[in-house]
## 1
Amino acid sequence: MRVAHTTRALKATEIVANLAKLEGWTLSGDGDSLAIEKPFGFANYYQTVAFVNAVAFIAHSEDHHPELIVQPRQCLVRWRTHDVHGISPADFACAKRVDDLQPETIAS
C-alpha cells in the first residue's frame, strides 16, 4: 500500500504527536537534517541483511527512501523528506511499516 506523499514539512507539534504513536523512534539532527530514527538489533549479520532487504522493499514500494547505517548486528533506519527539508507524514507512515517488520529494538 503506497503512502500518499505530502509537499510540506510537518510542524514541531505534529512531529511530537506522531512520535508519540511510534515506539522507540527519536528525533535526530536539526534544520535540513532533521529526521526520525530507530536502531534495530539482530542476532547475526544474515538477519540484519534480511531486514535491510525488507526495508528496501518498503522504500521501493513507497518511492520514499531512508538512510540506513548497517553494522553486523544492527541497522539504524533514518527517515526524512529531502523535498520538504524536514519530516513529512510519509516518514511516519514508512516508520510504521518498518516497525511492523520486527518489534524488537536495541538502545542507541
Note: The first strand starts at residue 26 and ends at 28.
## 2
Amino acid sequence: MRPARSLTLALVLSALALPSVGQSGPPELPADIFAHLTANRWAFPDVAEMHCDENPHTITFNEERTKSWFDWQGPMINYLGETDQQGSYDVLESDPEEGTITMYLHGEQRMTDEGSPVVWILRLIDGGEAYCWDRTDWSPPRCTHLHIRCQPPAPIS
C-alpha cells in the first residue's frame, strides 16, 4: 500500500471510531423542569379520548413549588373510576439533574406493600418531550403512564 493511501485509510478509520458531534448521549433535560412542565400541554398517547387534540392537561405549581395541579381540558376518569378534571399534589422534593419531582396525590388510596400511601415520582424523559410516573417503593425504578408533550398548533398565515 502506498504511504498516501495508508494515511488516508488511517484517517478514515480514526474518524469512524470517534463519536460524531450529534451523538452525545441522551437528550439534555430542560434547565428548569417546573417551568418546562408548566409551559406545555401534555396528553396520553395511547389512551382513547385523552390525546393532545382531545383532552390534554396542563400542570401548574404554586410560587414556592410545594403544590401542583394537573388540570384536564375536559372530564376524565381517574384511577378510582370517578369522573374528575383535576389532580392536586404536594411536592415533596425535586432533582433537576435527574428530571424528577416527587409528589403525594391528595386523597391517594393506593398503598405500598408496607401499608403507606403511594408517593409518586414524575420523571421527565426524552429530553423533556415526555414524562412518566414512578413510585418511591418500586425497585428498580419503573416508568408507567407515559404522557407526551403536545406540540403547539401550527401558525396560521
Note: The chain is about 15% helix and 35% strand.
## 3
Amino acid sequence: MLLRPRRLLPGALLFAGLSLLLLAPPAQAQSEAYRRGYDQGYADGLAAARQAPWQTGAAPNWPGSYPAPAAPITLHEARYGTAERACDARAGIARALANQAIPVLTVNNGLCGDPAPNQRKFLVLSYSCPGQGPVRQSGWEGQPMDLSCR
C-alpha cells in the first residue's frame, strides 16, 4: 500500500499565519504605545534631574538618601578650540554649572562660541576644589566631563 503525502500542511501553516496576523495588535499601535511610554519616562527623568537632589520630593520613587550638594569649584583656566584658535570658556562653564547639583559639563560650542568652524575642538580645563590642589582635565567636543569634588 502506497502512502501519499498530505497537502494540508501548507494550508494549515497559511491558516495559522493569517490567524496570528489578525489577532496581533497592529505595529502602529505598538509603536505609539511605546513612544508614549518613552516620552513619559523621559519627561519624568528630566523633571527629577532639574530639581536639586537635596530637596524633598525631588525623586519620589528613588530609594535611599540624597547626596549632599556638590562643593563649588574654582576655575583657573578653560581653553576651548584647536591648537591654533581657541577662546576662554570660564564664563560659559560657570553658567553651565551654576544650577547643577552634579557638575557634569558637555564640551560644546555653547561654552564660548565656535572659535574654529568645521574643525574638531577640545577643552583644556584647570580647576580646584576646596582644600584640594588643582585638577587638570581635557575632553573632545561632544564629550561629557565630570567636575565633581571628591
Note: Helices lie at 8-23, 27-50, 90-97.
